[in-house]
Design a protein that fits this description.
Blueprint (H helix, E strand, L loop, with lengths): L2 E9 L4 H17 L3 E6 L8 E8 L2 H13 L1 H13 L2 E9 L5
Length: 102
């Protein structure tokens, strides 16, 4: 069963450009580490401090293996450090979803 991780970010609205760079960095790191990146979505109009990401995996076990590879990856660690140092992510929520099929 495919599992999709839905990530909801609450951002510092004055640091959206930093979050966009952070998101762009993940576009190559996540697939390299084994995630099927569906994409990142930035605020466009309306609420200016909420962004989303969707990443799919074959299973929860595949997700756990991905997380271990991500933590060990130098580019991944640098991107996490960039976010921590600049504090543009105020909160992050993860939901694990499955697709409804007939």
């Amino acid at each position: 069963m495919t599992v999709t991780v839905f990530i909801r970010y609450t951002l510092d609205p004055f640091k959206r450009a930093m979050f966009e760079q952070y998101s762009k960095n993940w576009l190559t790191i996540i697939p390299k580490c084994g995630g099927d990146l569906i994409g990142y979505w930035m605020p466009h109009e309306g609420t200016n401090n909420v962004a989303f990401a969707l990443i799919s995996f074959d299973s929860l076990a595949a997700y756990e293996s991905y997380r271990a590879r991500l933590r060990a990856d130098s580019e991944g660690a640098a991107n996490f450090g960039f976010a921590e140092e600049n504090k543009f992510i105020l909160a992050e929520e993860r939901s694990f979803l499955r697709k409804v099929v007939a």
